[in-house]
Amino acid sequence: MKRLAFIIIPALIALGHSIRPPIIEGTEANLHEFPYQVSLQWNFNNGSRARHFCSGSIINQRWILTAAHCLEEYTKDGWFEVVAGVNNIAHEEAGAQRRNVTRYEQHESYDLSAIRYDIGVLQLSHPLDLTRNIKTMRLATKDTLIHQKIAKFAGWGSISKTWEDIYPDKLMKVNLILRTEEDCQTIGKIDETQICAGGYKNVSGCTADSGGPLTVTIDGEQMQIGVLSYGEKPCQARLPIVYSSVMYFHDWIQDAIKED
């Protein structure tokens, strides 16, 4: 399968299509601990099993939030699929739901070379049936104040600290330190559209973790504040990982998912 190689910017890569970042120094998630998280997969239309390449989060029954760079097609005759309610993507649990994608939208200012405005949404062919194991994600708004120092992240990305990726079948999770704006500058020029977390030999995301939700606990429930965009490769947790800011893009997301 074509890997979304991290976009290499002197040791940096975008985590998605050929950009598939993993969770480094993470632990296996409890069954259905992240009911709002989905696996984005590509069906090659050749009889093989669809392959995971990015993550996303459930905005509502018809729409998924992910990174813009995850919305690049691999092959002309293949298609996107979304799997919800799953921990083990090799042996899906009972109750998992698979959907095709009818359309997707990248931010109109998305710039792959600069890795800016890296956010997008995709519409499912049929609504998800919400259950105790498949739930929507609460999104932070431009007025949300983040006082937390630690955020949660999960994904099926590579767990290797070398150039050779090793992908887990089961969802992995990690707690990440939210970094200051000054800390973030060590990975490049970060602006108001982005936030960063992890790094400094702490923990990190990696290839195929792209598009996954960064969350904090507010008023007793998880709230998404970021969408994984890019980080260093190899994934050695030396530098912070960069996320597109959900607070900044909240209004764009709401406009993008309005039904015609």
What descriptors fit this protein?
260 residues, mainly beta, Thrombin, subunit H, 2 domains, six-stranded antiparallel β-barrel, 6% helix, disordered N terminus
Topology:
Layout: E1 12-14, E2 27-28, E3 37-43, E4 51-58, E5 63-66, E6 79-84, E7 97-106, E8 120-124, E9 138-139, E10 150-155, E11 172-177, H1 181-184, E12 194-197, E13 213-218, E14 221-232, E15 241-245, H2 246-256
Parallel strand pairs: 9-14
Antiparallel strand pairs: 1-14, 2-11, 3-4, 3-6, 4-5, 5-8, 6-7, 7-8, 10-11, 12-15, 13-14, 14-15
Give a verbal description of the structure:
By secondary structure, the protein is mostly beta strands. The protein has two domains: 35-136, Thrombin, subunit H (Beta Barrel), CATH 2.40.10; 138-247, Thrombin, subunit H. The chain is 6% helix and 33% strand. It is built from two helices and 15 strands. It has helices spanning 181-184, 246-256; strands at residues 12-14, 27-28, 37-43, 51-58, 63-66, 79-84, 97-106, 120-124, 138-139, 150-155, 172-177, 194-197, 213-218, 221-232, 241-245. The strands form three sheets. Strands 1, 9, 12, 13, 14 and 15 form a six-stranded mixed sheet that branches. Strand 4 and strand 5 form a beta hairpin. It starts with 11 loop residues before the first strand and ends with a helix.
